[in-house]
Specification:
alpha+beta; 4-stranded mixed β-sheet; globular; redox-active center; Thioredoxin-like_sf
Length: 128
């Protein structure tokens, strides 16, 4: 049987607390990290695309789907540089080699153009 995993909410505001340090640590320690809201189906899509390339990404869950933008602002603060042109931070977002690639649309564009595998190799996520 599955159990729900609790996450913290601020009692005063009701907003989900974003742990920017936890996300920054995961980005620093893992070659590929997917950051998204709990229960978002696009996180699953990103994971499957990356797993299809031979990469097992770490996943950081943030927020509860409120859509208040605090999570995206926190991610923008730890971007570590961009891969290409990314106008704004979207969730879910993927970090490769400590650099923010972008949301699902940017990940798909990089994959279709053939740039994803070289980026993964440069980050040390692929050894082929």
């Amino acid at each position: 049987m599955q159990q729900a995993i609790a996450y913290s909410r601020s009692a005063a505001t009701g907003k989900v607390e974003v742990d920017e340090d936890r996300i920054a640590k995961a980005v620093a320690e893992n070659p590929v990290v997917v950051v998204g809201r709990r229960g978002c189906c696009m996180v699953h899509v990103m994971r499957r695309l990356l797993q299809g390339q031979g990469v097992n990404p770490a996943v950081c869950d943030v927020g509860g789907g409120d859509g208040d933008g605090d999570e995206a602002a926190a991610i923008g603060g730890i971007s570590g540089g961009w891969v290409g042109e990314v106008p704004e931070v979207q969730l879910p977002a993927v970090f490769i080699g400590g650099r923010l690639v972008g949301g699902i649309d940017r990940l798909m564009a990089v994959h279709i153009s053939g740039e994803l595998v070289p980026i993964l190799k440069d980050a040390g996520a692929l050894w082929l």
